[in-house]
Amino acid sequence: MPLQVSDYSWQQTETAVFLSVPLRGVCVRDADVFCTENYLKVNFAPFLFEVFLYAPIDDENSKAKIGNDTIVFTLHKKEAVMWEALSVSGVDKEVMQRIREKSILKAQERAKEATEAKAAARREDQKYALNVMMKIEDEEREKIEHMKENERIKATKELEAWKKHQREAEEQKRIQREDKLHQQEKQIEEGKKLKHKSFPRNSTSRNLATKGRNSENIFSEKLKEDSIPAPRSIGSIQVNFTPRVFPTALRESRVAEEEEWLHKQAEARRTMNTDIPELSDLKEEEKNPEWLKDKGNKLFATENYLAAINAYNLAIRLNTKIPLLYLNRAACHLKLKNLHKAIEDSSKAYRIMKLHLRLIHPTKLYKMMLRRFGI
After folding, report:
1. Non-local CB neighbours of 44 within 8 Å, separated by 6+ positions
2. In angstroms, rounded to a whole number, what is the distance separating the alpha carbons of residues 270 and 305?
3. Is 59 exposed, middle or buried, given 0-12, 13-18 or 19+ CB atoms closer than 10 A?
């Protein structure tokens, strides 16, 4: 059975009641305080203190201070009047039980309302956080789209400038060809005029000479002049040489080294698949895997990871034996959270590098290490 505490003291003003309940060894951790408008209870085993208040109080603003073997209550009245006593007198057990049950139900309803209010506040906080996250994601998406649009505009401008330069170069070449042809035609015409002028002068001088020496040879000289053929027209002779891959003369060439170089070039062309539709609109130097790798690096630097992956994919299709292409593509997949693809590309790069090291002769590898470390 709990020990009922009856030794307490209280004071009041028109707006508040100050109640002091002595409890030996009381502490905040073990004391159970329950307070409503008309009922106050303190349970600290084995002590029990309860009081049915004379008038209703504002239990939400009332306070309790626990310490020094005492609990001090500051109870704020709802009406500013002086109480005749702290508790209601002449209350039987049934009324006390009803007051207890009513207080407990009211406390439960208040706790339920507080829980619902807390849940509603939590939902509002979650909704606000979700809206903030969506706003941040929209801003990031707009930023990425803006960067993509700027990159597309820049690439379009570069392409248009390159096309314009090509057109200007073609036009310049055409003009130069036309000028050259015009000059050749002019030279041919001038050569023909000079020959026609020189031919009559020679014939008249020859006739005068024959008249001075012997007038009887006039007919024979005319026959000789008639038998002289007309001057030949100017033309060009096409000279063809034996085709060679190397610009040096055959006497200066090294057949064995040249055949080895040609064999390596043919093998490199076989490993590089140049019949790719995506390469049809690129220049010859842009079909180089190294150029595509540099392009992918520039796109990676601008955080355009998808475009960088496309560049690395095309470079890998051209040459599958460059480990750095797989490493760069793995970095792009890592930025995009494609962890399985990043692991796959890293494994491919490791296998290619391991194969390269196996193919190097140990003596050659030793010399490479000596040159690397300056020994």
Report:
1. 23, 26, 30, 31, 32
2. 30
3. buried
Alpha helices in 233-361 (DSSP H): 255-271, 289-301, 305-318, 323-335, 339-359
DSSP 243-261: --SSSS-GGG--HHHHHHH
For residue 274, name the pLDDT band (cuts at 50, 70, 90). low
pLDDT of residue 38 exceeding 50, the answer is: yes
Residue 329 has pLDDT above 90, yes or no: yes
Classify 337 as helix, strand or coil. Answer: coil
Taking residues 95-115, report their average pLDDT: 83
- Chain centroid offset of residue 125 CA: 32
Asked if pLDDT for residue 212 goes beyond 50, the answer is no
What is the amino acid identity at position 148? K
Asked if residues 59 and 15 have their Cβ atoms less than 8 Å apart, the reply is: no
Nearest to 314 by CA among 347, 292, 282: 292
Q: What is the pLDDT of residues 17-34, one digit of tens each?
A: 898 888 888 888 888 888
Report the residue count for the chain.
Answer: 375
Contact 235, 242 (CB under 8 A): no
Tokens of 294: 């540099």
Surface-to-core class of residue 37, CB atoms within 10 Å of its CB (0-12 exposed, 13-18 middle, 19+ buried): middle
Global pTM value: 0.35
What does the radius of gyration of the chain's CA atoms come to, in whole angstroms?
54
Separation of alpha carbons 116 and 109, rounded Å? 10
